[in-house]
Design brief:
By secondary structure, the chain is α/β, with parallel strands linked by helices. The protein has 8 helices and 10 strands. Helices cover 38% and strands 27% of the residues. The strands form 2 sheets. A 6-stranded mixed beta sheet has the order 6-7-8-3-9-10, sandwiched between helices. Strands 2-1-4-5 form a 4-stranded antiparallel beta sheet, covered by helices on one side. The structure holds adenosine-5'-triphosphate. It comes from Pseudoalteromonas maricaloris.
């Protein structure tokens, strides 16, 4: 198995005045290419902090994080942005689409920043909008769509850059249960196509449907899937 994410003994402390919050305490976590992993846990437990570190949006006090073999702490800000643009697609609870732009332009703009030719951009935009079933609505603006459809556009935007990793922060948090189910179906589908997905969720039922669940409690990570327990037992028996 190829490791896409390798986190060892990561600590993150937020200091505000004299108050220090230990947001992550000696976190170890490995995620392989092609996995669909959920991160769950109570409010304030450290889920977003962990996702932000994985997304190269946040630094850390100590420990090591390798994304596709590259040590994150060795990168300066520009290098981190470059790696983030190249390797990571983000999906947010609030969709983060640009209200004034058509669906087509929403997906194309990040590709312009990546320096793609217009022909390549057109192909990527069409491919990804077709995949989420919204090519016919390409000239519409986000406010002309339902919440579920907006999230599908955000997923298309994340996919269009052909990232190695998709990070989703409560992707169904603003959707009713029917729309949430259709967005989850789409995430399963793109995972089956080979995409690695890491999703933060409060919802135990959604989490239970992913291949692996990471439980975060008070900054401590516990992997609570049967697969990992089996691996640990195997490793122990080989040691
Ligand atoms: N910028 C910051 N400054 C100070 N403390 C912070 C900051 N960001 C997060 N924290 C603290 O770090 C801890 C972990 O926060 P984090 O946002 O990662 O939790 P979470 O599990 O994502 O919560 P939620 O589910 O409510 O979004 C919390 O105690 C939080 O108050």
């Amino acid at each position: 198995m190829e490791h896409l994410i390798e986190i060892k003994k990561i600590r993150k402390v937020f200091k505000t005045g004299t108050v220090a919050t230990n947001a992550l305490r000696d976190v170890d976590l490995t995620i392989n290419k092609g996995e669909f992993v959920s991160i769950k846990g109570p409010s304030g437990s450290g889920k977003s902090t962990l996702l932000n570190i994985i997304g190269l949006l946040e630094d850390y006090e100590s420990g090591s994080y390798k994304l596709d073999g590259v040590e994150a702490s060795s990168l300066n800000d520009d290098q981190a942005s470059e790696l983030r643009n190249e390797k990571i697609g983000f999906i947010f609870q609030n969709f983060n689409l640009i209200a004034e732009l058509s669906l087509y332009d929403n997906i194309e703009v990040p590709l312009i920043y990546r320096g793609m030719t217009s022909q390549e951009r057109k192909q990527r935009v069409e491919e990804s909008l077709r995949l989420v079933g919204l090519w016919g609505r390409k000239e519409h603006r986000p406010d002309q769509l339902s919440g579920g459809q907006r999230q599908r556009v955000a997923i298309a935007r994340a996919l269009a850059g052909k990232p190695s990793l998709i990070l989703a922060d409560e992707p169904t948090g603003n959707l009713d249960s029917e729309m949430a189910a259709s967005v989850m179906d789409l995430l399963y589908q793109i995972n089956e196509m080979g995409n690695t997905i890491v999703m933060v969720t409060h919802d135990d039922e959604l989490a239970s449907k992913t291949q692996r669940q990471i439980q975060v409690t008070d900054g401590v990570v516990k992997q609570c899937d049967t697969e990992t327990e089996l691996l640990k037992e195997q490793e122990a028996s080989y040691a």
